[in-house]
Hints:
- The protein has helices at residues 3-59, 67-76, 121-127, 174-221, 234-281, 287-318, 331-341, 343-349, 367-384, 441-451; strands at residues 81-83, 86-88, 94-99, 104-107, 133-137, 146-156, 159-169, 327-330, 352-356, 361-365, 390-398, 401-409, 456-461, 464-475.
- It is of the alpha+beta class.
- The protein has 3 domains: 3-178, Beta-Lactamase; 225-321, Signal transduction histidine kinase, dimerisation/phosphotransfer (DHp) domain (Helix Hairpins); 327-475, Histidine kinase-like ATPase, C-terminal domain (Heat Shock Protein 90).
- The strands form 3 sheets. Strands 8, 9, 10, 11, 12, 13 and 14 form a 7-stranded mixed beta sheet that branches.
- A hairpin with a 2-residue loop joins strand 6 and strand 7.
- The chain starts with a helix and ends with a strand.
- It is found in: Membrane.
- Keywords: Kinase, Membrane, Phosphoprotein, Transferase, Transmembrane, Transmembrane helix, Two-component regulatory system.
Amino acid sequence: xxxxxxxxxxxxxxxxxxxxxxxxxxxxxxxxxxxxxxxxxxxxxxxxxxxxxxxxxxxxxxxxxxxxxxxxxxxxxxxxxxxxxxxxxxxxxxxxxxxxxxxxxxxxxxxxxxxxxxxxxxxxxxxxxxxxxxxxxxxxxxxxxxxxxxxxxxxxxxxxxxxxxxxxxxxxxxxxxxxxxxxxxxxxxxxxxxxxxxxxxxxxxxxxxxxxxxxxxxxxxxxxxxxxxxxxxxxxxxxxxxxxxxxxxxxxxxxxxxxxxxxxxxxxxxxxxxxxxxxxxxxxxxxxxxxxxxxxxxxxxxxxxxxxxxxxxxxxxxxxxxxxxxxxxxxxxxxxxxxxxxxxxxxxxxxxxxxxxxxxxxxxxxxxxxxxxxxxxxxxxxxxxxxxxxxxxxxxxxxxxxxxxxxxxxxxxxxxxxxxxxxxxxxxxxxxxxxxxxxxxxxxxxxxxxxxxxxxxxxxxxxxxxxxxxxxxxxx
Length: 476
């Protein structure tokens, strides 16, 4: 099972269980909470009525007072109120008054006058000086038919002379309870869905970050050039830095071993020639022969120096994972600088140079590396272009890229050699001398193109050889 899915499932389980327990607890508290608030209101109402009725009960004239008519009018009122969006069109409180023996003196419903209520807790406990309240079902088979009763003592000094009870059916509270429960369910479900969405986003983010590191590690193991994933602080940034440090250490060790082996192998031939010539020079020989051996030593020394310089340049670009700068480089100016460095050689061979690149065209990249790459291509072309031949520089715009084309008139490259030209140390004999080069120039150019997100192609065309370089382009 994928890590991202595991994170999501664990988070979803946590959110689900938390949501269930919280909602379950809150839902269980809604109904008691509403009833407690209602009971508190009934207590206030009952005590207010106890003070209002105290004089009439003490005088024994409650039935002759205006209070029975007031209760009747109260029962007929239509409040036409909206309480938090819920309509209320009738009053629901029942009020009854008992004497000191629990006999009902007055009942707003008109049902219990003269009955003995002394056994009901609201009357029984209140007459004893305690808090009297009860909840009784009007229908024993219906749990929703319960009615709350709260009693308040009617006092004459310290003596309790009666009880006034205010009752309210729980069914009148049910619409508010139902609405509150529905809202809690909606809000709870919304929060759970939001939590699951956050869990999905978190698992996707973690999986994506780890996948990028995995792809980076795989690319490094395959020897491909790839940019290190960047993170802002935290464990992922530390992991990324650790992976990059490990790559640098392993690559550096392997790189040094490989280059020492390569350099040792490539230096054997020129050093053997230098040593052989030096040994022969120690003996007596004609001046012309001595000059030939001195010339061999000079040529082989130059070859060693060129090999070391090319290897150092190649090592510089191979160790890079990206460009150090991205600037706009005028393509025409870059070509002119490259040609200027080889002016003497071009004039000596009598070559025709054609420049077909507009002054406005620029490429994006690192000027130093591009200059070196172009110099290697020109140096390679000069080795194979015969005297009086042609060099042509042109560019073709294709969308966001430009193809820079180098043409030199020369014999066709053998088909077997075309796919191997950019291999390290692979080289063809030069027409003039029959000697091979270091075989590092075109490999260097290919590495520079990869750093610039482009590629190099070499093909035979009519009359010569064409080298194409793809670079990112921008117009002024």
